[in-house]
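#lab-general

N.A. 3:47 PM
ok so I finally got the sequence cleaned up, no stray characters, all 398 residues accounted for. can someone with queue access submit it? mine expired

B.Y. 3:52 PM
send it over

N.A. 3:53 PM
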Amino acid sequence: MTTLPEDSFRGRYGFAREDVTLATWRTAPYMRWSFANVAELVPSAAIEAAPGRSEPPLADAGWLLGEKVELSGGGTTVRAFLESCDTDAFVVMKSGRFVADHHAPLARPEDRHIVFSISKSLTAILAGTLEDEGRLDPAAPVTDYVPEMAGSAYADATVRQVLDMRISVAIEETYLDPLSAYGRYRRAMLWNPPLPGEEAETMLGFLASLEKTEEPHGGAFHYRSPNSDLLGIIVERAAGQRYADLMRDRLWKGVGAHSDGLVTVDRAGTARAAGGVSMTARDLARVGDMMRLGGMGAGGRVVSERWVRDTLEKGDRGAWKAGDFPHFFKEGSYRSKWYASGLPGGAFCAIGIHGQWLYVDPSAEMTIVRLSSQPLPVDDPVDLDCLRLCAAIAERLR
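B.Y. 4:20 PM
back already:
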């Protein structure tokens, strides 16, 4: 955590610490600091790493930053692209080794950067471990695990439909409208300041209030973040263990994470499983490489190879094409909170708003992490160029 005297803080970041509030923390320029210091703004639970680990030295990224790549605007360099889109950290692994580490001037390798919706993919891994043990049945009704959802949009949904974002629920991802239902959602998770006179609510209460649309569950892929917060509650109920402790025991230990992580929580202590995880770029890369290796991490098996193959190969392409993001991957799919590209090399990824990426190409034995503070929550031109960049680096590493 960055703790600097006020004059030094302003000199380093160009603004005062007091300027960073719940109303401003996801806006420029404040996100350059807040995305690595979320716990100073939102209550957070620790995800503990095993003690005594020290990171290997940083890998020189010089061989990569000057590489020429063809993006939407023509030829450029890797460095120029990263600088143009507010990249904070960029890490590349090849065959299980770190081969490039690059950080922006105000970022540090030890920063625990919020990964936003990559949290969804991490939460799904927890669900996979419980499925492997027979403690979670994807075909079961949501209400088997969270009976409070009776009477809500989720009353007749299955866990599988929650995992695959094939839920009919009346909410839109309106990130920039604080007065929308999505704004109320963010207030329930303590990410936005309260409105005058509004009654405080919890994540569980908010989810139980959501209504179903006329569309049946199990149709097209519709990206709705509350589904993944519900998944976090489902895995807690199935395991009988708190989310942060599940992450510690099932993912952090298994991938050999070197640093503690964090997850934001609401006033009842419910984890923001859809977007509240913060971690170092290298530890996130370790998660991607575990998935590349079929569920085997540096600390042992995390999740079964069967689950990884199911996640990456069994997504419904028809649901994807009829859904929200078909322009990203023409032959893509989405299953268990992971995006499969449908490309010949088998590339897959996890994505978060404001420019968070975990991109894995098994054919190149490559894992890439890009953590950013992009001003816009969603910027399709930049995101598509990031995909082109990752594909170009994969070709360089084959």
